C-alpha cells in the first residue's frame, strides 16, 4: 500500500536517551504501479460517474473465484487507504446536488456486489459512505440488499450494525497520519512507528 510510484530510501535508526540518533543501516527500494494501484485510482476517480460505475458491473458477470475476490479486496482496499484523496472527495461523487431518491450506481454498490468486505469498511469511513447505503440503483437494489441477496453474511452485518469492528486481518496493518510533507505510520503488529518525509 503506497500512494505513488517512486524510489524510497529507508534508514534503520537506533536511539537511547541522552545519546544522538544512530543510523544503523540504509537502503533504497522501488514502489511499482500494479493492478491494485490502478484499480484503486480508477475507482476513486469514478465515484459518481454512472458510465464508469456501470462499466464495473462486468466483473460481477465474470464471477471471479472467491480466493481471487479476497485477494482483490485486500490489495485494492490497501491501495485505496494510501491514496491521497482530495479534501472534497466523496463516495457519492462530486455532484452533491443529487438527492438520495434518484436511482444510481455507487461505489458502495460495486463493493457490495462483489462482496469486498475491506473496501466496504474503508468506504463507510469516508464522506458519503453511510449515505450510500440507502441509495437504490436502477434495479431497485441498495448495497445492503445486494449483500443479503448474495449471501455475504459478514458484509451484511458490516452494513447494518452500528458498532461493527474493523475486519480482522486489518488489525495487523498500519495506521497513517499525514501532516504536510511528513507522515507518521504506526504498524500495530510490529509496534513500530515510522516517520516519512517527502524529498
From TrEMBL:
List, in alphabetical order, the GO biological process terms annotated in this UniProt record.
adrenergic receptor signaling pathway; positive regulation of canonical NF-kappaB signal transduction; regulation of Rho protein signal transduction
Gene Ontology MF terms: MAP-kinase scaffold activity
Xref: SUPFAM superfamilies: Ankyrin repeat
Q: Which residues form a coiled coil?
A: none
GO terms for CC?
A: actin cytoskeleton; membrane
UniProt cross-references to InterPro entries, sorted A to Z: Ankyrin_rpt-contain_sf, Rho_GEF
> What name appears for this protein in its UniProt entry?
AKP13 protein
- Organism phylogeny: Eukaryota, Metazoa, Chordata, Craniata, Vertebrata
